[in-house]
Amino acid sequence: MTKICKKAWVTGRVQGVWFRGSTQLKAVQLGVTGYAYNLPDGRVEVVMCGDSQAVNSLEAWLSKGPPMADVQHIEVSEIPWEDYHEFGVR
Length: 90
What we know:
Elements: E1 3-13, H1 19-30, E2 33-38, E3 44-51, H2 52-62, E4 70-79, E5 87-89
Parallel strand pairs: 2-5
Antiparallel strand pairs: 1-3, 1-4, 2-3
Helix pairs in contact: 1-2
């Protein structure tokens, strides 16, 4: 089981559509830790840490998001491992 962390920046209609809350639910379901945070420029920043398969599943889910979201673009990069205890909404 390979553990990885990724950071994603999600662009589109992703604020005010329950994006962070539904990302948190999906992350908990997958066993991924980290956080989702609304950026001042309208994007959502998501840090995802856990088993590589689970993190990749969450990344794939982010490209669609919840039903009311309209994801235009997602930029993802691997970041150094950080041990988060849960998946939080900031």
